[in-house]
């Protein structure tokens, strides 16, 4: 921020600012009944885009329901749903260009689907089979796809934030009219990487959209116990960044905010922070049980703000969707997901030699040594490894 943008007026009595000094309204366009507010300025959206958005939401709901079930049956080791947050994720990705680079946290698989990740590709990753793009080296849901400009998920929180600043900087240096888009939870915003990443992006003027899903919890910790400030949006202003807070369960509000954020980021070579207020309707992951830290009443209250239902009502009002066709859409995806599970779980795991590929340009001597040690170890204790581990 240049010195010229600092206030120079003076006062002569002590007076402190507090979190309420910054008034941050929430952008809302869509009402609960699927109509829009009279004064609302709608995003750019036509029937084809609206149906693509809705279809992605339905697919994601089905995928989440079925794969959580598959985890419970012991078919995959781990799963995370994004139930309740579909509008935040799909509404934002729908505002992007396919060449914009996405750096996600782990709950944004709907964005990957929107870009064209196939049901088969989802399954190959979750079953770590030989067709998995990550060659079986990651836990389920840690997707990545170079062709779709979707950087691979990493479990350590917030690492994607400074990386997104770097990607934005590189897009600017290459003269591309594209942005980096960084998704993260409000919990990840407590990491040091958040502050370093945002400050660098603002100072170096990088075209990055920082998209915070403020879903109320970091695993079992509610937001009240995570930070004392005025949400995450107040921090964007602190770093001198264009910032907006939106209703994250309102598809049209998220779409409108992200469309304008993208245009601004490209025109001004500058970052934008979007804080989407939403709620994680499901458990944190398949390893979590929320009944230990929140009430059924609280969950029921948020069920009434289901973002997919709200958007569906708008589509029906517009005459772009018929209620009668809805069940069929869900059924089609249930069958598709189930069929893909059956194929993916039967495919062999990747060859062991591939475990050291793609880490560096060529495997280093240290990696080669580790691989040969691993092979010896498996040969020595074959009873401790599944037969498939013998794909040497
Ligand atoms: C550096 C680091 N610390 C802790 C964890 C464990 N952990 C995984 S997810 C999570 C909560 C993150 O919450 P939030 O960013 O709000 O995302 P949400 O799960 O709500 O989508 C924590 C603490 C981790 N993966 N990495
Ligand atoms: Mg959270």
From TrEMBL:
The protein's name in its UniProt record: 2-oxoisovalerate dehydrogenase subunit alpha
Recorded catalytic activity of this chain's protein: N(6)-[(R)-lipoyl]-L-lysyl-[protein] + 3-methyl-2-oxobutanoate + H(+) = N(6)-[(R)-S(8)-2-methylpropanoyldihydrolipoyl]-L-lysyl-[protein] + CO2
Known function: The branched-chain alpha-keto dehydrogenase complex catalyzes the overall conversion of alpha-keto acids to acyl-CoA and CO(2). It contains multiple copies of three enzymatic components: branched-chain alpha-keto acid decarboxylase (E1), lipoamide acyltransferase (E2) and lipoamide dehydrogenase (E3).
Residue stretches making up the Dehydrogenase E1 component domain: 55-350
Organism this protein belongs to: Shewanella cutis
Catalytic activity, EC: 1.2.4.4
Entries under InterPro entries matching the protein: Alpha-ketoacid_DH_E1_comp, DH_E1, THDP-binding
Pfam families, per the entry: E1_dh
UniProt KW keywords: Oxidoreductase, Thiamine pyrophosphate
Cofactor: thiamine diphosphate
Entry annotated with the keyword Translocase: no
Protein family (similarity comment): Belongs to the BCKDHA family.
CDD domains the UniProt entry points to: TPP_E1_PDC_ADC_BCADC
């Amino acid at each position: 921020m240049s010195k010229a943008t600092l206030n120079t007026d003076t006062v002569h009595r002590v007076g402190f600012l507090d979190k309420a000094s910054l008034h941050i309204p929430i952008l809302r366009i869509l009402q609960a009944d699927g109509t829009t507010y009279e004064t609302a300025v709608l995003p750019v959206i036509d029937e084809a885009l609206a149906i693509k958005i809705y279809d992605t939401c339905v697919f994601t709901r089905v995928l989440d329901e079925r794969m959580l079930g598959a985890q419970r049956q012991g078919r995959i080791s781990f799963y995370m749903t994004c139930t309740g947050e579909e509008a935040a994720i799909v509404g934002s990705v729908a505002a992007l260009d396919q060449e914009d680079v996405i750096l996600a946290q782990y709950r944004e698989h709907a964005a990957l689907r929107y870009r064209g990740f196939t049901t088969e590709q989802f399954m190959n990753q979750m079953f770590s089979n030989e067709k998995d793009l990550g060659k079986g080296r990651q836990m389920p849901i840690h997707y990545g796809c170079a062709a779709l400009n979707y950087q691979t998920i990493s479990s350590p929180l917030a690492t994607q934030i400074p990386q997104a600043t770097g990607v934005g900087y590189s897009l600017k240096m290459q003269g591309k009219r594209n942005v980096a888009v960084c998704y993260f939870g409000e919990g990840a915003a407590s990491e040091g990487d958040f502050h370093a990443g945002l400050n660098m992006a603002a100072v170096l003027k990088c075209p990055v959209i920082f998209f915070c899903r403020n879903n109320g919890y970091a695993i079992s910790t509610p937001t009240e116990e995570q930070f004392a400030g005025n949400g995450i949006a107040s921090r964007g202003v602190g770093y001198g960044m264009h910032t907006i807070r939106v209703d994250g369960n309102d598809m049209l509000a998220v779409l409108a905010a992200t469309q304008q954020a993208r245009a601004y980021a490209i025109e001004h070579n500058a970052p934008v922070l979007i804080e989407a207020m939403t709620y994680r309707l499901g458990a944190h992951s398949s390893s979590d049980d929320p009944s230990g830290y929140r009430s059924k009443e609280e969950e029921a209250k948020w069920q009434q703000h289901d973002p997919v239902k709200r958007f569906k009502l708008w589509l029906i009002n517009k005459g772009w969707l018929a209620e009668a066709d809805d069940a069929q859409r869900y059924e089609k995806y249930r069958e598709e997901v189930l069929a893909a599970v059956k194929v993916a779980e039967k495919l062999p795991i990747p060859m062991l030699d591939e475990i050291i590929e793609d880490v560096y340009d060529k495997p280093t001597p240290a990696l080669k040594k580790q691989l040969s040690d691993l092979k010896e170890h498996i040969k020595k204790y074959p009873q401790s490894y599944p037969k498939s581990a013998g794909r040497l």
